[in-house]
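Customer escalation, tier 2.

The customer says the design service returned an amino acid string that "doesn't look like it belongs to this structure." They asked us to rerun it and document both sides in this ticket. The original structure tokens are below, unchanged.
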């Protein structure tokens, strides 16, 4: 059995479903780009269709897209959705990150 590229929690799955339905989109993209105070940051986007070289993860009626460049940073990560009194949003627990900033929005490898 092939190991799944990333794990998406039930809470994150539900929030992705809500976002896709509300915005009439088909897919949820996770990208890693250069930036942030630790060198790399996560970008979350809603899209219609996957690109030619995307990895497509299908789970409970959602499609999550990851481009080939981002796969090396995201492999074995867990995507969760966190709600606190101060804010809410997607949180990635990434075993590949060697460091991260205090706010948790960027990481270093």
């Amino acid at each position: 059995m092939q190991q799944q590229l990333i794990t998406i929690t039930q809470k994150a799955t539900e929030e992705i479903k809500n976002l896709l339905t509300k915005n009439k989109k088909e897919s949820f993209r996770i990208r890693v780009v250069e930036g942030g105070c630790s060198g790399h940051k996560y970008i979350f986007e809603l899209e219609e269709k996957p690109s030619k070289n995307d990895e497509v993860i299908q789970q409970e009626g959602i499609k999550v897209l990851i481009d080939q460049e981002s796969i090396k940073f995201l492999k074995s990560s867990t995507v969760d959705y966190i709600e606190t009194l101060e804010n809410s949003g997607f949180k990635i627990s990434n075993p590949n990150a060697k460091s991260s900033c205090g706010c948790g929005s960027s990481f270093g490898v």
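Tier 2 assessment: The sequence is consistent with the input. The chain has one domain: 7-108. The helical segments are 10-23, 68-74. Sent an explanation to the customer and offered a walkthrough call.
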